[in-house]
Amino acid sequence: MSEQARPLRRVEIRQQNETLILQAAEKVFAEAGFGGATMQLIADVAGLPKANLHYYFPTKEDLYRRVVQNIFEIWLHAADSMDNAPGPVEGIGAYIEAKMEISRRHPDGSKVWASEVMHGAPVIQDYLETTLRDWTTGRAALIQRWIDEGKMAPVNPEHLLYMLWATTQHYADFGHQIETLNAGQPLTEAQWRAAKDSVKSMILRGIGAL
């Protein structure tokens, strides 16, 4: 193996291990909460020695914050489509699509975030006071601009964002309830498509964008 290949291989192994650890941690934190989770349990779920976890994440709090940061960054990127959209139909419509897809693919991450916030955000309060506050202020200003341009009804931008979050994240945080009401089966591809279309239609019509 060449000298150049060895560092590349080490990088790949590190990335693979971090992915395994984060996936396991997301699942364990979602099921047990921060207090109930242990590094040993996360290591067992990841199929790695506990020492590996401490190599990548020295403490449980470090690992927990990384899990929370990951889902938060995924949510932030979901709103990128809003920034250059000509109006709410395109911007909010794409945001709903993206957020519901995240709920479908990252339900445990959403549950970790919800549990943390419901307990007063003891670990990630700084995210709420800085990054989330700045993000919300920026998106509220964008929505207000669409209102001022006559592209949607004069609604409260912040409360619209809260409703978007609540609706789209419901499909992750209350996924078991939805599955139970769906004859005990996960939503099919067609059902997910219908859900996205329904949510978009109801919200966009409700804010006078359609």
From TrEMBL:
<feature type="DNA-binding region" description="H-T-H motif">
    <location>
        <begin position="38"/>
        <end position="57"/>
    </location>
</feature>
<dbReference type="InterPro" id="IPR001647">
    <property type="entry name" value="HTH_TetR"/>
</dbReference>
<feature type="domain" description="HTH tetR-type">
    <location>
        <begin position="15"/>
        <end position="75"/>
    </location>
</feature>
<dbReference type="Pfam" id="PF08362">
    <property type="entry name" value="TetR_C_3"/>
</dbReference>
<protein>
    <submittedName>
        <fullName>TetR family transcriptional regulator</fullName>
    </submittedName>
</protein>
<keyword id="KW-0238">DNA-binding</keyword>
<dbReference type="GO" id="GO:0003700">
    <property type="term" value="F:DNA-binding transcription factor activity"/>
</dbReference>
<dbReference type="InterPro" id="IPR050109">
    <property type="entry name" value="HTH-type_TetR-like_transc_reg"/>
</dbReference>
<dbReference type="Pfam" id="PF00440">
    <property type="entry name" value="TetR_N"/>
</dbReference>
<dbReference type="InterPro" id="IPR009057">
    <property type="entry name" value="Homeodomain-like_sf"/>
</dbReference>
<dbReference type="GO" id="GO:0045892">
    <property type="term" value="P:negative regulation of DNA-templated transcription"/>
</dbReference>
<dbReference type="InterPro" id="IPR036271">
    <property type="entry name" value="Tet_transcr_reg_TetR-rel_C_sf"/>
</dbReference>
<dbReference type="GO" id="GO:0000976">
    <property type="term" value="F:transcription cis-regulatory region binding"/>
</dbReference>
<dbReference type="InterPro" id="IPR013573">
    <property type="entry name" value="Tscrpt_reg_YcdC_C"/>
</dbReference>
